[in-house]
Amino acid sequence: MEYDIRQLAPVRVVYLRYKGPFGPALGEFWQEVFTPWQKAMGLVNKVTYGVALDDPASTPAAECRYDACVEVSAEYPVREPARAAELAGGSYAVAQFHGTAADVGPAWGAFFAQLQAEGKQPSGPCFERYAADYAMDPASGTFHAELCIPL
């Protein structure tokens, strides 16, 4: 897998948390919970992030946490049920992803394995970054994201 090492700036986000098994349920969370909330809050056409807080290889599926986030200004007023956080800036390995929801897990696995084989260790939570003009192809179910692993 090809990737670049980039310096990313810290980003303030507001998020809704999902807890449970990764996989198809995450797509349902985005579609049924996060996206309607995002629209209701007027936070469309902004960069979004999916932050995996737990490693599903070492955390029981029911305990895995994932934050669906949207980038906001420092002045944005946070209202329940959302919470605010800052995604850390710093050095990240960034790979381009293009595929379906079923392809994301294997892509992450391959990316982590490659970095480990190269002697690079993650230094915090990884995330997917989605462009402000994100769109899923309705015919194929494919989409584009950046896979970001802090080093």
Class of secondary structure makeup: alpha+beta
Query: How many structural domains in the coordinates?
Result: 1
Poorly predicted runs: none
Count of individual helical segments: 2
Report what the structure shows.
This protein is an alpha+beta fold and 151 residues long. It has one domain: Multidrug-efflux Transporter 1 Regulator Bmrr, Chain A. Helix content is 23%, strand content 36%. It contains 2 helices and 8 strands; from the N terminus they run E-E-H-E-E-E-E-H-E-E. Strands 1-6-8-7-3-4-2-5 form an 8-stranded antiparallel beta sheet, with helices on one face. The longest helix is centred in the first third of the chain and has 17 residues, at 24-40. The two termini are 17 Å apart. 23% of the residues are buried. The model has no long low-confidence stretch (mean pLDDT 94).
Features:
Reg_factor_effector_dom_sf; alpha+beta; globular; 8 strands; single chain; Multidrug-efflux Transporter 1 Regulator Bmrr, Chain A; 151 residues
Topology:
Elements: E1 4-8, E2 11-19, H1 24-40, E3 48-52, E4 65-71, E5 83-87, E6 90-99, H2 101-117, E7 126-130, E8 143-150
Antiparallel strand pairs: 1-6, 2-4, 2-5, 3-4, 3-7, 6-8, 7-8
Brief account:
This protein is an alpha+beta fold.
